[in-house]
Amino acid sequence: MANLPKTYAPQEIEGKWYKFWQKNDYFHAAATSEKPPYAIVIPPPNITGSLHIGHALDNTLQDCLIRWRRMQGYNTLWMPGTDHAGIMTELIMERNLADEGISRTALGREKFVERMWQWKAETSDYIISQLQQLGCSCDWERERFTYDEGFVTAVNTAFLHLYNQGLIYRDTYMGNWCPHCNTVLSNLEVEPIEIDGNFYHIRYPVKDSEIVLEIATTRPETMLGDTAVAVHPDDERYQHLIGQTAILPLCDREIPIIADAYVDTEFGTGALKVTPAHDTNDYEIGSRHNLEQLTIFTRDGCINENAPKKYVGLSRWECRERVVEDLENLGYLVKIVPHRHAVGHHDRCGTIVEPTVSPQWFMNVRPLAQRAIEATQKGEIKFIPERETARFYHWMENIEPWPISRQRWWGHRLPIWYCSECEGITAAIARPQQCECGATSFHQDEDVLDTWFSSGLWPFATMGWPEKTQELKTFYPTSVLVTGWDILFFWVARMIMLGLGCMDEVPFRTVYLHGLVADEKGQKMSKSKGNTIDPLETIDTYGTDAFRFALANASTPNPYVPLLESQIESGRRFANKIWNAARFVLMNLEKYPVPAGSDAVDTSNETLEITWIRSRLSHTIKTTTEALENFRFYEAAQTLYAFLWHEFCDWYLEFTKQRVSQDEPAALWAAADTLEQTMRLLHPFMPFLTEEIWQQLSPNGTDTTEDETSVTVAPWPEAKGENPIAETTMATLMEVIESIRSIRGELNVPIGASVEVHIQSQNSEVREQLETYLRQYLPAFTRVTSITIAESLQKPPASAEAVIGDLAIYIPLADVIDLDAEHARLSKRHQQATKDVATAQKTLDNPNFVERAPEHVVAQKRELLERLLIEQEKLARSLAMLSESGG
RNA sequence: GGGCGGGUAGCUCAGGUGGCUAGAGCGACAGCCUUACAAGCUGUAGGUCACAGGUUCAAGUCCUGUCCCGCCUACCA
């Protein structure tokens, strides 16, 4: 064994072990195996840059599951890959190009896409290497990309499959248009943000009359596209105007005054200007009344020729200013009232969306949504936490047609061909030979598909669909999907629908939706808020394992999980603690090597502390396993932390010191065994550190290259059962030790000073236990000159006292005792005891409690009261004595 | 406007189907370099479990209402 440094240095071991794992192919899943399958597909990170804190959490949790199941003996597949992330990646590329002074349009589609592929090559490698730094045990041989060759086939096949069922169709409809990205968007991509706007009240004169109709709008510029004014059919104020004609100011166009029940008489003036081409509701009204759709904006959000000349070419905002100015000058403007309202923004680029009518490809998701609901109701899919199920249903039940075409360049082209002669549509992967009309010339649809269409195929396209591969047979449906709740609709819901649509089977059995990483104020971490923690920086500073442990430890079931720097720090301290515990064990093993063939542990002559630590280990195995089974990562992490630090290190290793100093190595060998098993338990959370220690501990497992093995493929520990008697005995001993320490601490007994300990107990069993073990253990925890244990003994003069139930501990402190301090100490405990007695007494005094509560609860209460009464009485007596001698 | 989640120690959070004397980490205070670890050890302090009712032998936990905070959703121009 090499000399281990005093402080754990993660940088020195992490890279080494990752290479080792890869070399041994531990992460590769066999397409066929006798082992039961367990599969997770990674939520493919976008190729837009580097991993953020959300990825770190998401992938840490996935790796925990995968490593745990692998150790449990499953044939585990963690399918990795990246996403081409259509619009987002294009935006970044456009920004890069802008830095070079090139515009996308100047470059042209072909060149642009070429550059995108170059970019992809660089960034996806970078992202993969970051996942590896995080320790992710993905099956890298199977890495995929949502725009690779296989995906093109899968996307085309899926499209045609759904098209042929009539689920995909072309329609001209009012949609969300992003004037910056020049594409239509789905509702999900539009983020409503509250902004401070205005309500503009404007007069619309009524033709052939002196009457003016006052309307109110937040978007005065759209009046240039007005084709009606609507009032409520029952609105008495406007009855006489229905059917009349208004004169649209600035345009001098005549528009009808119509009645439509959509109009809210209470809101604004009760008169609504109608712009069917640029407002979703107005569009509906327009279709009901057959109004003209007058488009007044260009694709990039400027005024077009349908508006009066003076406004043509202005941006939406310039136009608003000019229109308001003109209205005011001409006397049409009544007033401007500040008005706060929600306005849709493109979630990717932040541009205010312009509702626009355009021809698009849609997917009718209703039938698949219905099947998804049914599948969930039948239990084919389970959501964790459960509350997410309700969100899922709600969205699925209210789903609307999904616009799937995007007017962009980077992404899957639609397998749709238009005849150059008759414009007839042919759906086919390859260019068709001949149109029904006889023509032979075609052009392919220029649009690309929404990125989520292709990532919706991820769980089966990555496994080779549409081929009927062995992988699909083995691993589909996958076991679990792990992702943040924020993409439940974007991605999870669509995977389920497309899985049902293409595979006729849900893509996964369980969906675990974790929280979003937040800062200490509960604010979601985001670049724009500047409150992010950079995963790579964190790994550099604290080490991967510390970071991973902190993430798992922070991962409560809450929708937002605050991650504090101090928690990562705590992870690092934990790693260092483990490191040093291992050092201690290993250093001592040099002196006392584990005898060969000692695998069969001899428990016949086992000492209490060994029985105890094995019992606690068994409990820890059970709790950790259950926590993982229920996706309670924080609970697993906390269980392991508490066991390793506060039981194994704080107590067991101290016992071991004592034993070893007396030349009794059995405790040490049990320590090595416990540590080895604990390293296995902890491995899913802290893969690098546990591998390093496990290798050092394993009997043959020094750095030999032959017969390589790894904790990665070691079996998951088995809970062998707990020993309540040993645990109870140990608890008493610990209490005694803690009491003595407490006296020493509170009464400022010098560290170097040895003390006499007198213990009185009427319980012979307890006395026996103390006789047997306390003499052995105590020296490891505090300096003692002598220990006296008796059924009854006089409290020595000038001594400090502690009471534990029937047990009294006296420590003579003639030279150092501060009687006032001791009095204060005892009276505080007496007060507490009195309070506890009162509480317990009150419960037991209630006859209904004794009658109706379960027997064991009553018995427990009685025991407690008894013990508390004894303590209270002892303390009272000692206090009286103390006052006497002191006063 | 609806729906969901939350309010427990100075801070961040645990406390499945009500029942041990309400816990942890961090922070605070006091004392220690005790030969695995100062990224450590030992001890101490700190909580009307948001508020008000109710159900129950028993409520941090279940019910109702109120007040805050956050989020998701909705066509009020």
End-to-end separation in angstroms reads: 63 Å
- Report the C-alpha radius of gyration, rounded: 37 Å
Helix % is 40-55%
Give the amount of beta strand, in percent. 15-25%
Overall pLDDT metric: 90
- State the secondary-structure class: alpha/beta
Q: How are the strands ordered across the major sheet?
A: 6-5-14-16
Sum up the overall morphology in one term. Answer: elongated
Please give the count of helices.
26
Number of strands: 29
Oligomer state equals: single chain
For the largest beta-sheet, the strand count, sense and barrel status come to:
4 strands, antiparallel
Describe the model:
The chain starts with 10 loop residues before the first helix and ends with a helix. Helix 9 (366-377) crosses helix 14 (488-503). It is built from 26 helices and 29 strands. The longest helix is centred in the C-terminal third of the chain and has 32 residues, at 855-886. The strands form ten sheets. It has a four-stranded antiparallel sheet. It has a four-stranded mixed sheet with strand order 10-11-9-12, with helices on one face. Strands 27-26-29-28 form a four-stranded mixed sheet, sandwiched between helices. Helix content is 45%, strand content 18%. With 887 residues, the chain is of the alpha/beta class. The structure holds one RNA strand of 77 nucleotides.
Note the main attributes of this structure.
alpha/beta; 26 helices; 45% helix; RNA-binding
